[in-house]
Design goal:
alpha+beta
């Protein structure tokens, strides 16, 4: 009987320390989770972007700064509707590979090309020398299916 009582006391003492620690951790992470951008990189939002908008206006539509928001999924993007050099950001039906934005020469000397990558699509925007939208493009996303479990095990075991 005393062993059972000892176990209950140990459980209670562990719980008395662990529960407050977990609660404190959750409370500490809430502001960080709330501030994180939750981008909305969608075809519908692409249609809201207009020539002459600032990058700040585009970021407010898409929910965050340019970046990769595909949640770690390897996605290929195929050009659906692209103006000028934004088409270089995406693959095409002829096998042309996508080029990173930093390797594409903008039309204007002080211009820049940016891209927002999501799981559904990617949106590329070229800003002119004044920092407003000059050209834009959208590529639809396609993620190759994950191989079957037996194939992954074979690869892992190097067979």
């Amino acid at each position: 009987m005393s062993n059972g009582g000892s176990f209950v006391r140990q459980y209670r003492s562990v719980a008395a320390v662990a529960v407050p620690l977990v609660i404190a951790l959750v409370l500490a992470l809430l502001p960080w989770l709330y501030r994180r951008p939750h981008p909305q990189i969608t075809v519908e939002n692409f249609r809201k972007i207009k020539h002459g908008m600032t990058q700040q206006e585009v970021e407010s539509i898409l929910g965050g700064p340019p970046g990769d928001y595909a949640s770690g999924v390897q996605v290929q993007y195929f050009c659906m509707s692209c103006e000028g050099s934004t088409g270089s950001l995406f693959e095409d039906a002829h096998g042309r590979k996508a080029i990173p934005p930093e390797q594409i020469q903008p039309f204007f000397p002080n211009g820049r090309i940016t891209i927002w990558r999501g799981t559904e699509c990617a949106i590329g925007v070229e800003f002119d020398g004044n920092g407003t939208v000059f050209r834009m493009g959208i590529g639809l996303g396609w993620a190759p299916p994950e191989p079957p479990i037996l194939e992954r095990i074979r690869d892992w075991l190097e067979f």
